[in-house]
Amino acid sequence: MVGEEGAFVLSWDEVLTEEELSVTLKVLCMSEEEFKEYKAQDGWEDNSEEEENSTLSNKALSRLKTPCKKLLYDSVLLTLEAYRSDLKAEQDLLNNKEAYEKLSRREQQALHVRYGQKRILHQLLELLQ
User: Fold this and answer.
1) How far apart, in Å, are the Cα atoms of 44 and each of 10, 23, 34?
2) Which residues pair with 10 in a beta bridge?
3) Helix (H) or strand (E) holding 68
4) What confidence tier does 38 reach under pLDDT thresholds 50, 70, 90?
5) Residue-wise pLDDT tens digits, 2-25
6) Of 112, 5, 26, nearest in space to 71 by CA
7) Other C-beta atoms within 10 Å of 125: how many?
8) pTM strictly above 0.90
9) What are the structural domains, with CATH classification, of the chain?
10) Burial of 56 by CB count in 10 Å (0-12 exposed, 13-18 middle, 19+ buried)?
11) What whole-number distance in Å separates Cα of residue 34 and Cα of residue 81?
12) In angstroms, how far apart are the furthest CA atoms of the chain?
């Protein structure tokens, strides 16, 4: 369901892999009976009204059903735990000019990427609370 990478792509404003995340959340939050029906039908029939309502902007994420919100929230927490440091540690390193300049160019770029990823994930946690 999530493609080859097994990950969802998020931006500041929306989920960029919204179809994959929407389907994944729906399937994972189904009852056993709903899942059996889903499998029997080879997924859902195309329903343009449902598609319009499934757009996963940041506003829409905050309106997800409670089980889906909890699943996504817990997934974000697990993702954040995979990092070696937290958001504050990255921010402190970015603000410490002396320590930052000791990093190689590649390490500086990696720091900026990690910091951006963590900020997006923390924003998502706030939306899902």
Assistant:
1) 24, 9, 11
2) 15
3) helix 66-81
4) confident
5) 555 667 888 888 888 888 888 888
6) 26
7) 14
8) no
9) 18-128 (3.90.1420.10)
10) buried
11) 32
12) 61
